[in-house]
Amino acid sequence: MPVQKTTRKSLPSRHNPVLTARKARLPHPDHERPSLSQETSLEAYHLSKAARKHESHVDIADDDADDAHEQVVDTKTSRRILQLAREQQDEVEATGTNKQNNRRSTDVLHRKQKKQPVILESDDDDDDDEGNQFDHDEMDFDGMEAQLGINEADKAILEKFMNREQPNRQLMLADAVLEKIKFAQPNNTSAETIAAKLNSKVVEVYTKVGMILSRYRSGKLPKTFKIIPTLSDWEDILLLTNPEKWTPHATYQATRIFSSNLKANLAQRFYSVFLLDKVRTEISETKKLNVHLYNALKKALYKPAAFFKGFLLPLCESGDCTLREAVIVGSVLTKVSIPTLQSAACLLKLAEMEYSGANSIFIRILVDKKYALPYKVLDALVFHFIKFTRTEAEMPVLWHQSLLVFVQRYKNDLTDEQKESLLELIRIKTHYAVSYEIRRELTGQT
User: Fold this and answer.
1) 315, 358 Cβ separation under 8 angstroms
2) Is residue 30 part of a domain?
3) What's the pLDDT tens digit per position in 161-218?
C-alpha cells in the first residue's frame, strides 16, 4: 500500500521579523549625532546652571551670616540697616507698579460683582504669615465667664480683694513702656533721649518701620524689623517703632519673632514691657481681645518660664487684674501644653502671693492639668487655702471651685493632717453647693 505524502502547513510570518528589527536599530543616515561643539555647549549650560544655583546659596548664607554678627547699633550695623532699607525700597519700586495695577484691576472687578469698597492690600506675600488663617475677629469670652457660675454677688466679693488704687488703663502704652524702661535704666527717661544717642539714619528708618506696622494687615515684614532681636539695645530700637500704634496683626508677628529669637530673659522683658500693656489696654477699651492678640499670647507660651515671669505673675501682682482679663488669659493656658516644671514653679508663686480672684482662676486651670507636683508645691497650695480659716472675709465661688479641683486631683497625695485642716476649713468657709463635694472627696464617701 503506497505511503501517502503529507503536506506541512506553512506558518504565518512574524509580525516583526528579526531582520526588520535589526534594520530598525541601525542609525538612519539623516539622524546624525550631535557634534562635539554641541555637546560641549550643553555641558557648559548645565555647569553654568549649577554654578548659578551654588552662588545663590552662597549669597543667602552670606546674608544670614551678616545678620548673625550684628549685635550693636554701631557704624557697621547702621550701614547694614540702611543697605537693607535701600534694597527693599528698590524691590518695591521695581515690582510694585505691575503688581499694583494687576491687583487694582482685580479689586475693581470684585467691586463691580459684589458692590463692596476696594481694599488695597500689601504687594508682598508672607510665606509664614500664620495670622492670615484666622477667620474671626474675637473670641467668645462671655460664654467662658458664664461657665464659671459667677453672679453679681460674687463679682462684688471679688472687687473687695482687688487693689483700690487702680491705675488708669486709658494711659497711653508708650507712657507705660517708658515708665518700665525708666525703672530699669534710670539714665534713659524719654524717647528723645533714646533717639538722641542713636544714628539719625537709624532713627529715620525705624520711624518709617513703625508707620508700616501701624497699618500692617498681612504680607512680609520689613527686613530691618526682623533683625531687631539681634541688636543689644533692641528695646530702644523697638520703642522708635511706636508699639502702642501697632495693629493686632503686627503685634502677633512681632511676638512670634521675638519669642523665637530672643533668649528667655530677654523674651521675658519683651512680654513685660510691651505685650502685657498692649493686651490689657485692648481688653480695657473693647471688653474683648482681638484674635491676633489672643494668638500672640499662645505664641508667647513658646517660652513658658518667660511668659509666667514676664506676663502672668506681673498681671496677678498688679492687684487690679479684672475677671475678664483672668478668663481670657486662663483660656490661653487651657489650650497650650505647658511643661510640668514651669507650671509647678508658677503654682508655687501664685500660692504664696496675696489673694485675688485672678489667683483662683489660674490655680484652678493649672491644677486641673493633673501634673505630678512636688510635695513643696502641694504643701504651699494647702497653706494657701487653710490660711483663710482665720479670716472673716467671705470667699467668692472661684475660691471654692479651685479648692474643689485641688482636692479632686491630689487627695491621695495629702496627709491625714492636711485633710483634717481642709475639713476644718470648709466647716468655717462654707458654700451651699461646693462644700459638700469637697467633704465627700476628702472623706472618701460615695
Assistant:
1) yes
2) no
3) 666 455 554 444 555 555 555 545 545 545 566 667 778 888 899 999 999 999 999 9
Asked if residue 173 is part of any domain, the answer here is no
The Cα–Cα gap between 327 and 149 comes to 12
Number of domains in the chain: 1
Domain assignment present for residue 32? The answer is no
Cα 259 to Cα 419: distance, rounded to the nearest angstrom:
42
Please report how the helices 340-352 and 357-367 are oriented relative to each other, as an axis angle in degrees rounded to 10: 150
Average predicted confidence (pLDDT) for the chain: 75
Distance of CA 61 to the CA centre of its chain: 27
Distance CA 202, CA 78 (A): 6
First-to-last C-alpha distance (Å) of the chain: 115
Residue 388 maps to a domain:
yes
Cα–Cα distance for residue pair 213/245, rounded to 1 Å: 8
Summarize pLDDT for 54-84 with one digit per residue, the tens. Answer: 555 545 445 544 544 444 556 777 777 777 7
Three-state secondary structure readout of the chain: CCCCCCCCCCCCCCCCCHHHHHHHHCCCCCCCCCCHHHHHHHHHHHHHHHHHHHHHHHHHHHHHHHHHCCCCCCHHHHHHHHHHHHHHHHHHHHHHHHHHHHHHHHHHHHHHHHCCCCCCCCCCCCCCCHHHHCCCCECCHHHHHHHCCCCHHHHHHHHHCCCCCCCCCCCCHHHHHHHHHHHHCCCCCCHHHHHHCCCHHHHHHHHHHHHHHCCCCCCCCCHHHHCHHHCCCHHHHHHHCCHHHCCHHHHHHHHHHHHHHCCHHHHHHHHHHHHHHHHHHHHHHHCCCEHHHHHHHHHHCCCHHHHHHHHHHHHHHCCCCCHHHHHHHHHHHHHCCCCHHHHHHHHHHHHHCCCCHHHHHHHHHHHCCCCCCCHHHHHHHHHHHHHHHHCCCCCCHHHHHHHHHHHHHHHHHCCHHHHHHHHHHHHHCCCCCCHHHHHHHHHCCC
- Asked if pLDDT for residue 111 goes beyond 50, the answer is no
Using a cut of 0.85, tell me whether the model's pTM lies above it: no
Task: Look up the domain containing 374 and give its range.
Answer: 150-167+338-446
